[in-house]
Each structure stands twice: as structure tokens, then as C-alpha cells.
Amino acid sequence: MAYTKLNRSAATLTKNRTEGSISPFSGMCVTCVDGCIGMCEIGKSAYRGHEVLYPQPFGIITAASEKEYPVDLSDFSIMGTAAGAQGIEADSDKATFPKVSIETQIGHDKGIKLKVPFVISGMGSTNVAKQNWEGLAAGAAISGVILTVGENVCGMDENSEFKDGKIVRSPDMENRVKSFKDWQQDGYGTVVVQANVEDTRLGVQEYVIEKLGVEAVELKWGQGAKDIGGEVKIKNLKKAQELKKRGYIVLPDPEDPSVIEAFEKGSFKEFERHSRLGMVEEESFMQRVEELRKAGAKYIFLKTGAYRPVDLARAVKFSSKAKLDLLTVDGAGGGTGMSPWRMMNEWGIPGVEIWSLLYQYLCKLDKKGEFTPDIAAAGGITFEDQIYKVLSLGAPYFKLVGMARGPMAATMVGKTIGKRIEEGQIPVYVERFGSTAEEIFVTAPELKKRFKERFKNIPTGAMGLHGYFERLSQGLRQFMAGSRKFDLTYITRDDIAALTQDAANISGIPYITDVDKEEVDKILKG
To answer: What's the CA gap between 147 and 470, in Å, rounded?
Structure first.
């Protein structure tokens, strides 16, 4: 079976000339003809070089791998039952799916309470995050989830102010934090600020704790989409030069006279800004955690990516030793940022495999009586069945799922519908539901009841995100009710079964025909 698509993708705006006859191992047309203009990745690379590394159109999309991994969450099935109930009285009039509780709490003091077990993973300095932040922040807040401000926001803010190499003010960061807090309801959810190498050097987390009242911060080793630091494209020469002064890697060198001349002539139109690679060491990690606690951080998280197993072990052990409040582990292939396309497809440990390893490592610590942090699993999770399967796969340690592309998509759609309403150009597909936000967005009546006069100020992007989360919530409750689990704390690994022997071997979840064998024998012998 071929898992990878080579040399052509909608993500790189490329395709093969002979679409029906493609070499499976190289991805090239079976016959590569002299005279072809170069529609494939090889051809486009011939005249645009490194630009073809990244998904396009850059800055207005999110992107994720199109590789078909040998095992994924579809290789598991959720197990329902016709008997009993956990977390509620086993009474047909009482044990209904709307009664299922999916609220949860995380942190050393269980002080972060969530209406639903979701964390929106790092949305950083990319244009697509900034342009949709209003909807993301308000939608996350009214839904009662965790929202993560990603890396490089202060460093990329053209209006940031610095003193002695440290950030003292960032209007963009101020807006991101305020946008969430303005809509936060009854203390549910929280806003978290990430930091990479450059953010740490600039003092971003100390700034948000001291000046913006942020209680939760996240150390970042990486994510599942790429094995390097984050990157964005810069179309302005002066901004590229300023970012180099702020400590970023900028390619090509915006201070080189020959580069400046080529840019001004139009030989290329964009600079690349890259972040540095972090260098993980136990001593410096523990020291940084202590610095953040002294600075006033109430909750400290760690986000890591799809690195090799030994790095996952480090993440688990260091989080245990430091008694962190949340560890997020991101499987390969996902991402909202502009990761190199081949890297996104061909690097790292996929979700099922890395989550299974994570469960094994946590079990080892738990058996020794060592502290196990709350866990969020991330990596291409978009729907309620996947949420249930992941929480089951890692039970009892997995408390949340991390999502990014799904929430971003819902927010962008909500925003777009709002614009079309304003323009009086509602697409027919949407217009059949109505002509106003109150008619089109199915959760609008509930929001209007909750927010009264403030309802008119809710961004339609936020309504889109809230509607998406409302769907996930009801779907998750239905699955849980079918398994007779009326609270998240009752979810176990016994709630799913493997549909393939490979999935069973990787995860330790029993093959579907092996499930309940002992109980079955007891019933049949009785």
C-alpha cells in the first residue's frame, strides 16, 4: 500500500501532467517530457526553489498532512452496552444523553474548570491566526475551553515596545488576552501563552504574567507538524530587517545589499522568518519552571511534538518531576502553521502510536508512585468519535484533547458568513436557513438568552466556533450515554476495541473479537 502522495498536491498548488500514470515510488509522471512547463513539485521547484517547500497560498490557509498512516483512530470502534449506567442511576427516565457531564477540571489544584474537555492549541504569529483571533477568543471563552496564544506574537508585533532587549508592551498580545477575558463566563476556561526560544529571550511570559494578568503559561518543545521552529513569510523589507534585529533568523539576509537589490527588483517577493531550535536539558528546564513560578505563573504547561520516543520519555519524566499542570503531546501530520510540506507528511510519530507510547510511559511512572501530569492529546482530532476514542485510549491519564484546524475552520466559516450577511450576498447553501445571524446560527437563541444586549456584539466567527463545539459536545454525550458513561471520569480503555491486529498490537487495546471474553464465558456457562 502506498501511504504517501509524492510530487503533487493541492497544498503546493502542483499536479502531474500524466495524472493517470504516475510512478508510485518517485511520484513523477511515468513519461517526463522535454517541453513540459513544470506543473509538478519538481518542475515548480526548478523556477521557485525553496518557496515550494511550503503549503500555498501562504498565510491564509491552515494545512495538514495528506499521508495515509497505516493505523489511525478509524482502526478502533467504540463499545456500547445495553446494561447499567455509571455516574447516574440506571433508570431509563434519568439516564438520558443530555444528562451526561463533560465538564472537567485540570491543574494541580483542579483550578482550571472547563465546560468541555477541549484545548485550542497554539495559534501564534501566522496571519490566519491574527485575522481570526476575535472569533477564536470570544468563541473559546463563551464555550468554556482553554485557548492558547502561540509563539512569536510579541516578536512579530510591529508596535511592540522593548527595553534592554525585553518586551514591555505588545498591543497585539494585549488584544489577544483581552479578547478572551472580555467574554469569559463564570471562570470557565483560561488563556495560555506559549514561549519558544525567542519568546523566552524577549521575556514574553514574564510580561504577560506581570502586565496582563495571565495565570497559565506553556513551555514549547515543538509540535506534530514540523521538526523545526516556526516560520512566516514577510513581504516588507523594513519589517524583515526589524525582525532580524529582534533576534530572529531571516532568510535571505535582509541587510545584505545584493539581497536588498534583488528584492527591490522583484526577483523574490517574500522573506522567511524562522525560529530557533530549542535545546532540551533537564537542568535548564527545571530552572525555567522555577523562574516562571517565581514570576507568578499559577499554572505551567508543556507542549511537545512527534519527536522520537526518548524525547517523549523526557517530556513525561520532566513534567512529572516539575509537577506540571498539563502536558500536551501532538502526533505527526497536523498543524495550523506553515510547516514545510514534505516534513509535515514524512516526519515524526503518528497519533495512535505516540499516544499509545505516552500511555505506557505514564503507567510506568504511576506504578512507581510518581506524579503523573494531566494530559492533552493532539494531532488531527476533529470530531466527537475521535475525541471519545482518544480519551479512552489514554484513560485515566488523558483529560483533554487538543484541536486547532477544526476550531479555526469553524471560526473562519462563521466570520465569512457574517461578512456575506453584511454584504447581502448570502450563498444559496446558507440562505435556506435564513438571512440573519440569529436565523442562520442554530445556537444563536441560546447565546441571545445568555448574553442579552451583548449578543449583538458576539462576532459571527465566535458563533461559528461555539456552534462547532456545541455539535461536538452533543455528539460526545451521545457516545458516552451509549457506553453508559455519564461522566468523563468513568471513561476507560475498555470503551474501545481494535478493528485490526496492528491497532491492537500498537495500542494494547484488545482486538474486537477478544473483548469481554471472560464475562461472555461466565454468562454462557451460567
So the answer is: 16
Q: What is the pLDDT of residues 115-124, one digit of tens each?
A: 999 999 988 8
Closest CA to 400 of 115, 210, 130, 38: 115
Residue among 244, 250, 216, 183 nearest 376 (CA): 216
In one-letter notation, the amino acid at residue 149 is V
Q: Which fold has domain 96-230+279-492?
A: TIM Barrel (3.20.20)
Residue corresponding to grid cell 488563556 = 191
Contact status, residue 449 vs residue 124, Cβ threshold 8 Å: no
What sections of 252-347 are H helices per DSSP? Answer: 257-265, 282-295, 309-321, 341-346
* HSE-CB of 26 using CA atoms within 13 angstroms: 11
Q: What are the boundaries of each domain within the chain? A: 10-53, 96-230+279-492, 231-274
Other Cβ atoms closer than 10 A to 21: 10
State the pLDDT at residue 337.
Answer: 67
Task: Tell me the Cα Rg of the chain.
Answer: 24
For 401-441, how does the pLDDT look when each residue is reduced to its tens digit (9 = 90+)? 999 999 999 999 999 999 999 999 999 999 999 999 999 99
> What is the per-residue pLDDT across 251-294, written as a single tens digit (0 to 9) for each?
999 999 999 999 999 999 999 999 899 999 999 999 999 999 99
- The pTM is what? 0.94
Residue pointed to by grid coordinates 503549503: 55
Contact indicator for 208, 315 with CB cutoff of 8 Å: no
User: What is the pLDDT, as a whole number, of residue 333?
Assistant: 85
pLDDT over threshold 90, residue 88 = yes
Question: For residue 180, is pLDDT > 60?
Answer: yes
**Eight-state DSSP code of residue 471:** H
User: Is the separation of the CB atoms in 504 and 511 below 8 Å?
Assistant: yes
As a whole number of angstroms, the distance between CA 94 and CA 86 comes to 12
Cell of 110: 483542579
pLDDT for position 122: 85
Angle between helices 460-482 and 405-423 (to 10 degrees): 140
- Terminal CA-CA length for the chain: 46
CA atoms of 484 and 98, how far apart (whole Å): 12
252: preceding bond cis by omega (within 30 degrees): yes
- The amino acid at residue 182 is D
3-state secondary structure of 160: coil
Contact of 184 with 145, CB cutoff 8 Å: no
What is the C-alpha to C-alpha distance for residues 338 and 24, in angstroms, rounded to an integer? 26
Name residue 188's amino acid: Y
* String of DSSP letters for 392-451: HHTTTTEEEEEESHHHHHHHHHHHHHHHHHHHT---HHHHTT-SSHHHHSTTHHHHHHHH
